[in-house]
Each structure stands twice: as C-alpha cells, then as structure tokens.
Amino acid sequence: MVTKLTTLVADCDRFYRQSLSQLLEKAGHDVLIATSISDALQTLKGRSADIIITDLYLDSHQPDGFMILRLARQVRPGCEVIFTTSTPRLETAIQCLREGACDYLSKPVSDADLLASVQRIQERLVQRLQQEDALVTIETNIRKVLSRSTATLGAPVEPEQIEPKHYRIGPVLLDLNRYEIEVDGQRISATTSEIQILGYLCRNPRRVVTPQELIRSIRGYTVEPRDAQETIRAHISNLRRKLSMIAPDADIITTVRSVGYSLKTPPQVSL
Predict the structure, then answer these.
(1) Torsions phi, psi for 176 (to 5 deg)
(2) Assigned fold of 166-270
(3) CATH topology of 6-123 equal to that of 166-270?
(4) Residues near 142 by Cβ (< 8 Å), separated by ≥ 6?
(5) With 60 as the cut, is the pLDDT of residue 153 above it?
(6) Tens of pLDDT along 180-238?
(7) Phi, psi at residue 163, to the nearest 5°?
(8) Phi, psi of 216 (to 5 degrees)
(9) Strand residue runs (E) in 89-185
(10) Helix, strand, coil proportions of the chain in percent (round to 5)?
(11) What's phi and psi for 111, nearest 5 deg?
C-alpha cells in the first residue's frame, strides 16, 4: 500500500492550476501549488514532493522547468517529474527524457492522459518499495544463515541481550514486535528500512548518527558517503512526511547539517 502522494503543480495559468489541483485531490493526492520558478524552488526547499507537474517554460522562453527537476532530485532523489508545454518539440522532448523526466505532455493535457501518467509513476513507486523490502528480507536471512554457520564452527556465543521492543517519542510509537509505527494510535504505511532507521535512532538517542552508520545498520555493509547520504535522506524524508500527515507534532527527527540525524528527545522504552 502506497502512502498518499504529495504532488507539486507549477504553472502560471491560474485556471489550469486549479483544474489540475482539483483533479489530483479527487485522485487522493496532497497538492502543493507554485506560480513561478522562484515560488516552486522555495516550496521544494520547505517540502519534498513525490511528483512534480510543471510547465517546461514556466517563467520565460527558456526551459527553466529543468531547474525545478534538478533541485527536486537533490531534496528527494526518488522524485518523479512530468513536464507539460504548449509548444512541444522533438528535441525538447528528448532533452527532458535525458534529464530524467518521466513524461512530456502537450497542452492542453486531457484528464485521462494526466491520470494515466500519474498512475504509471505510482506503480513504479509500489514496485520500488516492494523491491527494497525484498532486498532487506534476503539480506536478513543471509545474515541469520551466516550467524548459525559461525556458531556451528564453535565461535563463542554471546549471552543474548533483551532489547526493548517499544519506543515512544511524543505521539509516535515504534512497535518492533509487530514491526509497525503508529502516530496517535494510527498506523502508518512504513517500509522496513524506515522502521529499521527509526529503531536505530531510538537505540542511540543521545548522539548524532551518520548516514553511513545508518546504512551499515540496516544493510549490513558500508557504502560511499555520498551514496549513503542520498539513500538515507530519501528514507528520512519519506518517514517525516508520513508522520507529519497524521500529527504536526510528530516531527521527531533532527537533521544535523553535514553530519547526520538524531532524535529530538530520548524515547520512552519498554519490552
């Protein structure tokens, strides 16, 4: 199940913006609005979006929509962009695809064409989450097998330590027995990686954890700092969005610029 998508609509045409926003809201999206390139960039600095639908020529005769795409990918690497334009050209369409846009639609865009494009994106998001969870499951099973093999060879067995299974941070409850996250009693659709990241932060509540350490804790191996930063940033952004959709005071994670992440307050723990 995919969480409610956040979609940014960037267009200078007031009627088109309203029409598109109403269509997406009826389809279950949380819609953000931008009227200019500066407005869109400012919005993305404050909130990340799953999908961006923007006029390629938002403020000028130059394809300034590419600026939105590049910033969006910095804020959230998995963000998908749909470009629209009143002056479609083959060379521009090719450039859009090279820049990483998922679609290039000619105005006026029909409701059916737009919703079909959005549906394709949603299906990719579902597939991406399923693949991610499947990878985590495979890696967990491999570690269990290797652990049993080591024990069979006579490696010393450490006494089992009982880890807390419930962590409460404000309105947020992390239940590691059921592998669930609840906000004010309402369960959110969290991925395995998001649960593991929050669990690691809860187990290390009084220090800042780097992206590389978080990757190592949930994947079992080390990656380059830049790759770790982009991966963890995307997971944290998704988790924050899911929490804040239920309760504004569920913003429990602090970003320490150029260092990593920590919890704003230590959690209450129980077995």
Answers:
(1) -85, -10
(2) Arc Repressor Mutant, subunit A (1.10.10)
(3) no
(4) none
(5) no
(6) 999 999 988 888 888 989 999 999 988 999 998 998 888 777 778 888 888 898 889 88
(7) -90, 145
(8) -60, -35
(9) 103-106, 166-169, 172-175, 180-183
(10) 50, 20, 30
(11) -60, -40
Give the C-alpha separation, 106 to 85, whole Å. Answer: 5
CB neighbour list of residue 15: distance below 8 Å, 6 or more residues apart: none
CA dist 203 → 226, 232, 266 (Å)? 24, 17, 9
Which CATH number applies to 6-123? 3.40.50.2300
Structure confidence at residue 174 as a pLDDT band (50, 70, 90): very high
Q: Where are the domains of the chain?
A: 6-123, 166-270
Phi and psi torsions of 268, nearest 5°: -85, 135
Over range 157-172, report the average pLDDT: 76
Share of the chain above pLDDT 70, in %: 86
Work out the average pLDDT over 107-115. Answer: 91
Instruction: Quote the CA–CA distance of 223 and 211 in Å, as a whole number.
Output: 10
CA 1/CA 255 separation, integer angstroms: 28
Q: Quick one: average pLDDT of 157-169? A: 72
Per DSSP (E only), the strands in the chain are 6-10, 30-34, 51-55, 80-85, 103-106, 166-169, 172-175, 180-183, 186-187, 253-256, 260-263, 268-270
Task: State residue 130's pLDDT score.
Answer: 66
**What gap in Å lies between CA 87 and CA 78, rounded to an integer?**
28
